Amino acid sequence: MARCTQLPAWQVLQEHQWEIARQHMRDLFSADTQRFERYSIRLDDLLFDYSKNRITDKTLEHLFELARQVGLQEKITAMFRGDKINNTERRAVLHTALRNRSNRPVLVDGVDVMPGINRVLEQMRIFSNAIRSHEWRGYTGKPISDVVHIGIGGSDLGPKMVVKALTPYCRPELKVHFVSNVDEADLVETIKNLNRETTLFIVASKTFTTQETMTNALSAREWFMAGVDGKEAIAKHFVAVSTNAEKVEAFGIDTKNMFEFWDWVGGRYSLWSAIGLPIAVAVGMENFELLLTGAHKVDEHFRTEPLESNIPVLMGLLGIWYNNFFGAQTQAILPYDQYLDFLADHLQQADMESNGKSVDIEGKRLDYDTGPVIFGQAGTNGQHAFYQLIHQGSKLIPCDFLAAARSHHHLGGHHEALLSNFIAQTEALMRGKTTEEAKVELVAEGVPEDQLDMLAMAKTFPGNKPSNSFLYQSLDPETLGVLIALYEHKVFVQGSVWNINSFDQMGVELGKQLAKTVLKDMTGDESVTSHESSTNGLLNYYKSLR
Ligand code: F6P
Q1: Is the distance from CB of 217 to CB of 203 less than 8 angstroms?
Q2: Pick from 402, 460, 403, 380: which is nearest to 428 by CA?
Q3: Which of 28, 42, 163, 529 has the largest CB neighbor count within 10 A?
Q4: Whose CA is nearest to atom 6 of ligand 1?
Q5: Using H for helix, E for strand and C for coil, what is the string for 55-71?
Q6: Ligand 1 pocket test: which of 150, 181, 206 has the largest number of ligand atoms within 8 Å of its C-beta?
Q7: Helix or strand or coil: residue 86?
Q8: In whole angstroms, how far apart are CA 275 and each of 299, 322, 510?
C-alpha cells in the first residue's frame, strides 16, 4: 500500500497548507456568519464545535479525500468485523464488542464472542450487587467498606478516571481506591487506615505477570494475611480480573473469583471489560451499563455516519492536519470539570501507547510524524500554569475543551465562572489581540509613550490557535461513555491514516527487560562493571547510598 505521504490527497493538502497558513481565523469568521452552524455537529445533547480550526471547506474536502484514499471506511469495517488488525500479535481488536448493546453476533475465528461477554457482565452484576447490598461479607462477617483495585496502565487508568468522573454516583460508605505504582508508598498510604475485615482487593492484570501489579498484590496479600487466621479468608477478600487463569490460581485466588476477559481487548481499551469491575462496584451495574450504552452510541455513529458528519473522523483528521502539515507536536486535553481530572492521563495512554510508533504495519520505517504528545489538566487550573505557552509561546498546540452545561452541585456562581472561562479561552485562542488593540488599551490606561511599543508587543496575542469544543448537558455515565469512545476512535482514525498498528505496545518492553537485569545487579555489595559507565555509575552510587 502506498504511504499516506505519497497519496495525491496528501500532496494536495501540502500545497493547500500554504494558503491556509496565511489566513487568520478571525477573518474566516468575519467572512462567514454561518461558520459555527456549518462546522459543528450534534450527537444527541453533545455539541462538537470544530469551527475554531484553521480550515475551510477546501481543507475538509482534501482531508476527507485523504481518508478515502487510505481506505478508512474499510479499516473501520474490518475492526468492527473482528479482523485481526493487530497484526504483530495476530489479534482482533474488539473493545467495541464489549459495549455492543445491540447484541449483534461478533465473530472471532468463526465463534460469536457475545455470549462470553454477556456471561461476564452477569458475573459483574452479581458481584457488584453483592458488595453494594452487603450480601458479600468479609471473613468476620462484616460488609465491605473499601475496595482496593491493584493494576497499572490500561488496567488502572481507565477505571480510575471513570470512578473519579462519576464521583456523584458513588456511595460515601463504599470507597474505591487505586494502587498502581510499584513504589511502596502507593500501597502503604492507601492501606494504612484500612481495616482488613472490611477491605476487598481486586487484582487486575491482563497478563497477571506485570511486575508492578504482582509486587503490589503480593504485598497486599501479606498485609491481609498478617492479621488473619486461615488461607480460606483470602476468597472473601481477593478477586482477580485477567485473561490468565493459570497465573491467577497460582497466586492463590480461586478461579471462581476470577473475571475473565480476552486477548482481543487491548489494555488501554479495557475499561469496558471486567477491568471496569471497580466502576460497577462504585456506581452500580446499571450505571456501568449506561457507560457502555454511551460508548455503543458512538460506535454506531462511527461505523455508519458518512465521513463528513462523523465526529471521531473529524477529530482524527483535524489532528492529522496540525500534526503533519503544521508541525504541531502536542495536543492539549482541557476538561472544564474537576471530575475529569484524570481524563488527560487516560487519554495520554490511549493515544500515546497506540500511536507512538515509527514503523508501519508492514514493518517499514516511517518518514513522517505519528502520534502527538498528549497532555492536559482540568480547567481552570491549567490557565494558571501552562496556557501562557499556548497563547503566546512559539509552539502550535491544538486544544480540546470539554464541559457540562450543568454542574452536579449548586453553589452559586461557580459553574458560570467555570464555563465563562472555557468559552472565553476558546475565543481568546482564536481571536488573539493585535498590537494595535493592545496599544489602544495601554493608552487608555495612561501608559507613558516611551513604554508603549515594548508593552504593546508583550501584550500582543497572535491568536489563530485551533481548538475543538465539546459541550453537553451533564457529566453522567452515558455521556462519559460517549466522550471516551470518541477519543478511542479518533486514535483509530489517525493510526489508519498513518498505516500503523495502533494496538500493540512493543515500546514498553525494552525497559521491562533491562529492569530485570538491573534488579539482579542491585543485589550484593560488589561493584557493577557489566554496563556502560553511566549505568554502572548509577548502580554503584546507589549501592554506596542505600
Ligand atoms: O504498559 C504496558 C502494558 O502492557 C499496557 O499496555 C497495559 O495496559 C499495562 O502494561 C498493564 O498490563 P497488564 O494488564 O497485563 O498487567
Answers
A1: yes
A2: 460
A3: 163
A4: 267
A5: CCHHHHHHHHHHHHHCC
A6: 206
A7: strand
A8: 20, 34, 25
349 C-alpha to center of ligand 1: Å? 10
Residue type, 248: V
Q: Is the pTM of this model over 0.85?
A: yes
Ligand 1 atom at shortest distance from the alpha carbon of 152: 11
Ligand 1 interacting residues, C-beta cut-off 6 A: 152-155, 205-207, 210, 213, 267-268, 353, 505, 508
SS (H, E, C) 255-290: HHHEEECCCCCCHHHCCCCHHHHHHHHHHCHHHHHH
Question: pLDDT per position in the chain (546 positions), as tens?
Answer: 789 999 999 999 999 999 999 999 999 999 999 999 999 999 999 999 999 999 999 999 999 999 999 999 999 999 999 999 999 999 999 999 999 999 999 999 999 999 999 999 999 999 999 999 999 999 999 999 999 999 999 999 999 999 999 999 999 999 999 999 999 999 999 999 999 999 999 999 999 999 999 999 999 999 999 988 778 899 999 999 999 999 999 999 989 999 999 999 999 999 999 999 999 999 999 999 999 999 999 999 999 999 999 999 999 999 999 999 999 999 999 999 999 999 999 999 999 999 999 999 999 999 999 999 999 999 999 999 999 999 999 999 999 999 999 999 999 999 999 999 999 999 999 999 999 999 999 999 999 999 999 999 999 999 999 999 999 999 999 999 999 999 999 999 999 999 999 999 999 999 999 999 999 999 999 999 999 999 999 999 999 999
Picking from 278, 121, 146, the residue whose alpha carbon sits closest to that of residue 202 is 278
User: Atom 8 (ligand 1): residue with closest C-alpha?
Assistant: 154
Grid cell locating 26: 478571525
Closest CA to 267 of 292, 241, 306: 241
CA of 486 to the centre of ligand 1 (A): 22
Residue 132, burial from CB neighbour count under 10 angstroms (0-12, 13-18, 19+): buried
Distance (Å) from CA 152 to ligand 1 centroid: 6
Q: State how far the Cα of 378 lies from the Cα of 293, in Å rounded to an integer.
A: 25
* Three-class SS state of 436: helix
Q: Which among 407, 431, 419, 422 has a CA at the least distance from the CA of 468?
A: 422
